[in-house]
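Predict the 3D structure for this chain.
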Amino acid sequence: MSTTPEPCLPPRPALLDGPRFAFGTLTVLPVSVRRWDREAARAGMLWAPVAGLVVGLGAAALGALLLLLGSGPLLAAVASVAVPAVLTRGLHLDGLADTADGLGSGKPAKDALRIMKQSDIGPFGVVTLVLVLLAQVAALTEAYGESWALGALAAAVSATAARLALT
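Done. Predicted structure below.
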């Protein structure tokens, strides 16, 4: 009989812990996240591009539908840019604004981090959001102007690629 205790390892994530974590933290879709530990988070981040694809397909579907109903490429692009903001609670936009405010402040690292953690948005964050959203709308307007399929593909691929950074 051994007196050496066995190491206490965290339980391996169940098959659905990864997708639940990804969709539960990265989207507004009603998913119950059952585990909040490192292993579940790691598995979830591996599933992040799939969550991005679902968000992107929603954006693509709305943009394509608007075009097929007779709207112009600009309205389709604006709608396609709005869908990820709605389906992610603006998580990516909030992070971008916080980063712009912190880096734009010109403060030392400790103060910049404090600025990033504040709940309000500063001038650098506002300007960055406006310019980034305008660039997204402009790019998708061009793509939808070529064809509904190219615009839809661009919307889906961009949302998927954006979540690849998490992996």
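Residues 108 and 165 are 26 Å apart (CA to CA).
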